[in-house]
Amino acid sequence: MSMPETHIKSPAPLSRRFCVAPMMDWTTRHYRYLARILSRRALLYTEMVTTGALIHGDTARFLQHDPLEYPLALQLGGSDPDELARCAALAEEYGFNEVNLNVGCPSDRVQNNMIGACLMGHPEKVADGVRSMIAATSLPVTVKHRIGIDGRESWEDLCHFMETVAAAGCRTFIVHARIAVLEGLSPKENRDIPPLKYPWVYDLKARYPELEIIINGGIKTFEECHQHLEHTDGVMLGREAYHNPWLLAGVDPELFGEEPSVSSRHDALRAMLPFIEAELERGVYLSHITRHIMGLFHGQPGGRQFRRHISENAHRPGSGIEVVLDALAKVREPLPQPDPA
Ligand SMILES: Cc1cc2nc3c(=O)[nH]c(=O)nc-3n(C[C@H](O)[C@H](O)[C@H](O)COP(=O)(O)O)c2cc1C
């Protein structure tokens, strides 16, 4: 089998012009590997890992990644300044390029531990955490947050949050442009129901031009990215980048004016085969890897058969690389022309 030459010779410089959002169970290292094959320039984020899990759990397992994933940010959940400092130092030790604090997750489970969006009600606590992270690492320390939470959703509350955290040294804010409703909405509902208020994020950039402001929430196309980039420093896409990963193949040409990293979906998957084989050899189940490539042929002739073949076969005991090759054979290979979605 001929292998396309890997396009990733050395990591691209860190830029937040286009970021792929941290997503629990979705932006695993298997997804990130595919994402990096598709774009050299997108900044990738890990799933959130709590400081407690990192410090008291299997640290090396939580932090494992492939250098090919760089530039890569580690997202932390926590609020204890000492623990955050220890974890920020670990991020640097393990080679990450940025460490990000989650102040946007609305789950009950994390609220009880003062993690995530509930911290928007405690700007000083976030500032303390950020200050001690900055003291513990030379990596950039960034914060991902909402425009508010129920009960603290005024423009003044948001400005107070930004100013308090900026005073602790944070220069980069990733803003999900909707509030989180901590009472009464599930995490999933909290990603759809509170209305998106993009102008609030634009106004933050206008008010604090010295801060780097990345906008997040509901963005799906490059046209939308270009519009947001007129008002902010960068865009972060979550669900669309996961369900339709081929979108990422357009990032380098559309947003960086560079050559596409890969010229076809088939080439992208072929570039991933040696990694899949190495993972299988380490004992990783095929289905744990393939669930993240299901969207690659989204909307393509044969795309449904590709998905079906993988979902019917990848979970069977002993399934190997042939399942992926057989699935790939079900999609017609286009003439070699760049076709970023
Ligand atoms: C399955 C899933 C898991 C998520 N996990 C995290 C997380 O670990 N940390 C975080 O900051 N946001 C998390 N989010 C929120 C996303 O990072 C993002 O803010 C949100 O989906 C809005 O962006 P989008 O409309 O482009 O998807 C998650 C979203 C989804 C769909």
Using brief descriptors, characterize the structure shown.
alpha/beta, 13% strand, 8 strands, 40% helix, 341 residues, eight-stranded parallel barrel, TIM Barrel
Q: Can you name the CATH architecture of the largest domain? A: Alpha-Beta Barrel
Distance between the termini: 27 Å
Which ligands are bound?
Answer: flavin mononucleotide
How do the helices and strands follow one another from N- to C-terminus? EHEHHEHEHHEHEHEHEHHHHHH
State the CATH superfamily name of the largest domain: Aldolase class I
Mean pLDDT: 94
- Beta strands, count: 8
Secondary structure: elements and pairs:
Elements: E1 18-20, H1 29-38, E2 43-50, H2 51-56, H3 59-63, E3 72-77, H4 81-93, E4 98-103, H5 108-111, H6 123-136, E5 141-146, H7 155-167, E6 172-176, H8 198-207, E7 212-216, H9 222-229, E8 234-237, H10 239-243, H11 251-256, H12 265-281, H13 286-290, H14 303-313, H15 321-329
Parallel strand pairs: 1-2, 1-8, 2-3, 3-4, 4-5, 5-6, 6-7, 7-8
Bound molecules: flavin mononucleotide (FMN).
Flavin mononucleotide binds next to strand 2 and helix 10.
Q: How would you characterize the overall build of this protein?
A:
Helix 1 packs antiparallel against helix 12, helix 4 packs parallel to helix 6 and helix 6 (123-136) packs parallel to helix 7. This protein has two domains: 18-256, Aldolase class I (TIM Barrel); 265-329, Up-down Bundle (Four Helix Bundle (Hemerythrin (Met), subunit A)), CATH 1.20.120. Helices cover 40% and strands 13% of the residues. With 341 residues, the protein is of the alpha/beta class. Helix 4 (81-93) links the parallel strand 3 and strand 4 (98-103). Mean pLDDT is 94; it is low at 1-7. It is built from 15 helices and eight strands. The structure holds flavin mononucleotide.
